[in-house]
């Protein structure tokens, strides 16, 4: 009989013995003793041994009558070890429920979970995401796997790994907002893994790991343009020159000012999204947005559709702006860089002023000019937070919404000298 020397080292059991003078040492990849014993037995079965059957020592062991016989003191010692091992196994079996074969398979398969990159492929297969989001997820996963160094199995990711990744990113110069964004991608992937059953009985290690509170994110967010800065931007020679040299940038910025649409909503516009209602209200129809409230009809003053804009649009096939073809980047990436150069040219360097600051400015401008909360929410595609308003109010028609906001849009076009001053008082013709 062969003794089974199975012992625990750190968090895993090992099998260590000597057969025919050759030392054998193997990790059994489990912290459960009974699973370790089963695996040790299977390991022995797999070892090819040439045994001299004429030289086998035989024991006589009858536990019911208390008889134990062996050949010599050395064999007697081995017999005692075998009996001790047998007693220990019986004690363990009384303390723990029997290990089923399925349990052994589960313990074995847990070490063969998906890698983070494999999980990402499954995520993209089942989720509808935009190209820019795909790129951001891929870059974050590759960065995390490079940091992890070993093959990154999702079942092995611990809270400590997320913490060390945050420290790694901070060491590379990433600010807390950027770090939270990247950890957010990891958290979303692991939540998907838990929901789809790729991770069993495990909490998300990236949960509650944000560095910034909601209040900090709001206070540290993008600033709002002031009225004087808006005048400076849109009346500058730099901006006027763009109408000829870069009309895409010129009209994207102008639409940002009077519609407050997000940069991705504007740069992906197609011809078919510019429409006129039955009552002759000009509008742009936003069909794809972050939320259901974001899918909306945004009224526009008809003065925006001058001959220059019509000529610009007529030269396009489907998408109006060139930025949408920039695969691998967000469609607004180039606009964001150019507005930064534009502001630098005008020496406007007051904190975090970006394209999104136009949206914030217009919302603030409407509020100061007494445009009510409900039409503002519908215009900008904001979710209405008040339960009473959200439940009992009706949606404005695009014509009614136009009556509320178009005069304010015209005031802005006059203030920035995009249209002559008298244009502010031209009424849009209405059908009978």
Automatic annotation (TrEMBL):
Keyword Phosphoprotein recorded: no
Residue stretches making up the Core-binding (CB) domain: 114-194
Chain ranges of the Tyr recombinase domain: 220-406
InterPro entries: CB, DNA_brk_join_enz, Integrase-like_cat_sf, Integrase_catalytic, Integrase_recombinase_N, SAM-like_dom, Tyrosine_recombinase_XerCD
Biological process according to GO: DNA integration; DNA recombination
A Pfam family hit: Phage_integrase
Keyword DNA-binding: yes
Keywords: DNA integration, DNA recombination, DNA-binding
Domain of life (superkingdom): Bacteria
Molecular function terms, GO-annotated: DNA binding
Similarity comment: family membership: Belongs to the 'phage' integrase family.
Protein name from the UniProt record: Phage integrase SAM-like domain-containing protein
């Amino acid at each position: 009989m062969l003794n089974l020397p199975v012992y625990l080292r750190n968090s895993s059991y090992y099998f260590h013995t000597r057969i025919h003078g050759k030392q054998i040492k193997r990790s059994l990849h489990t912290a459960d003793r009974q699973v370790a014993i089963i695996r040790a037995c299977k390991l022995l079965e797999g070892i090819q041994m040439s045994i001299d059957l004429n030289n086998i020592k035989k024991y006589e062991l009858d536990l019911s009558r208390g008889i134990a016989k062996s050949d010599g003191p050395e064999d007697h010692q081995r017999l005692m070890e075998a009996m001790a091992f047998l007693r220990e196994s019986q004690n363990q079996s009384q303390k723990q429920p029997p290990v089923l074969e399925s349990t052994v398979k589960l313990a074995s398969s847990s070490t063969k979970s998906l890698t983070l990159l494999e999980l990402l492929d499954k995520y993209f297969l089942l989720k509808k995401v935009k190209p820019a989001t795909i790129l951001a997820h891929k870059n974050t996963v590759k960065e995390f796997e490079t940091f992890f160094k070993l093959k990154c199995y999702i079942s092995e990711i611990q809270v400590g790994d997320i913490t060390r990744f945050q420290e790694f990113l901070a060491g590379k110069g990433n600010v807390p907002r950027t770090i939270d964004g990247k950890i957010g991608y990891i958290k979303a992937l692991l939540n998907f893994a838990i929901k789809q059953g790729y991770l069993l009985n495990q909490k998300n290690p990236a949960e509650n790991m944000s560095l910034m509170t909601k209040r900090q994110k709001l206070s540290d967010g993008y600033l709002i343009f002031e009225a004087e800065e808006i005048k400076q931007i849109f009346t500058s020679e730099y901006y006027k020159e763009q109408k000829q040299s870069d009309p895409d940038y010129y009209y994207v910025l102008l639409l940002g000012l009077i519609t407050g649409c997000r940069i991705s909503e504007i740069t992906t516009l197609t011809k078919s999204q510019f429409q006129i209602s039955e009552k002759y209200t000009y509008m742009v129809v936003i069909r794809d947005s972050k939320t259901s409230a974001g899918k909306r009809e945004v009224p526009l003053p008809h003065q925006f559709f001058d001959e220059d804009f019509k000529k610009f649009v007529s030269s396009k096939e489907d998408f109006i702006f060139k930025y949408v073809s920039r695969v691998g980047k967000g469609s607004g990436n180039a606009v964001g860089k150019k507005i930064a150069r534009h502001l630098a040219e005008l020496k406007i360097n007051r904190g975090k002023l970006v394209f999104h600051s136009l949206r914030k400015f217009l919302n603030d401008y409407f509020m100061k000019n007494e445009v009510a909360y409900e039409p503002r929410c519908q215009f900008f595609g904001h979710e209405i937070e008040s339960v009473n308003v959200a439940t009992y109010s009706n949606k404005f028609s695009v014509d009614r919404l136009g009556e509320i906001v178009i005069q304010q849009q015209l005031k802005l076009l006059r203030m920035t000298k995009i249209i002559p001053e008298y244009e502010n008082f031209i009424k849009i013709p209405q059908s009978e």
